Amino acid sequence: MNDTVVTLVGNAATGVDYRETPTGGVARFRFAVTPRRWDRRNSAWTDGSTSFYTVCAWRNLGANLTASVNVGDPLVVHGRLRVRDETLDGQRRTFVDIDAVSIGHDLTWGTSAFKRVVRANAALTEPSVDMSAAASAANAATAGNGSGSGSGSDAGPGAVGKPVHTQPWLSEQDESAAPVGAAGVPTGPP
Q: What angle do CA 40, 45, 46 make, to 5 degrees?
């Protein structure tokens, strides 16, 4: 794939406009990027010329963006750059768009509090059936061998009561450090 992927740091210049389409919701807003340079002659920071981009965010990113971003918020936008030429009223104009992959607040200028959104599709948030079955087998196996006391040094790595590791966002290193139950299923952090 030969897309031009860019990461821009700037401010939301307009409010977020969210619309439902047949292919899913889309949010759009204008994004202003103003470079700052050190002026040696005046010994001060000066603003360069501002570039404006139209940022498009689809589906979940667009819905979350609508609930999170206001005019003037400092943002970091990562996505695919699209440049298009159009003729309007006899004049040729160039538009620069960003199809966002991810957007976040720029924490250089303030703090932000993350709030996870519960998805409507349960298959995206619940562990698979195979993982649940393996966890049940691991708990049943460790409950039967007496190593599930959970106290003292005789508690084995598959002690009952430890949560089953179902976090796909942990790295392989994190998974290898986690103790493994009788059925070979990671049972959570050590």
A: 100
CB 187, CB 158: distance < 8 Å: yes
At a CB cut-off of 8 Å and minimum separation 6, what does 59 contact?
A: 24, 25
CB 8 within 8 A of CB 80: no
Are 56 and 35 contacting, i.e. CB atoms less than 8 angstroms apart?
no
* Rounded Cα gap, residues 96 and 120, in angstroms: 34
| Phi and psi based region of residue 184 (left: phi greater than 0; alpha: psi -120 to 50; beta: remaining) | left
* C-alpha closest to that of 158 among 149, 166, 146, 148: 148
How many residues are listed for the chain in this entry? 190
- pLDDT score, position 164: 43
Q: Mean pLDDT for each 10-residue chunk of the chain (190 residues)?
A: 90 95 92 93 92 95 93 96 91 94 94 83 50 49 45 44 42 43 46
Among the residues of the chain, which ranges form H helices? Answer: 59-68, 129-144, 172-177
Query: Is 148:159 a contact under the CB 8 Å cutoff?
Result: yes
Structure tokens at 187: 């049972």
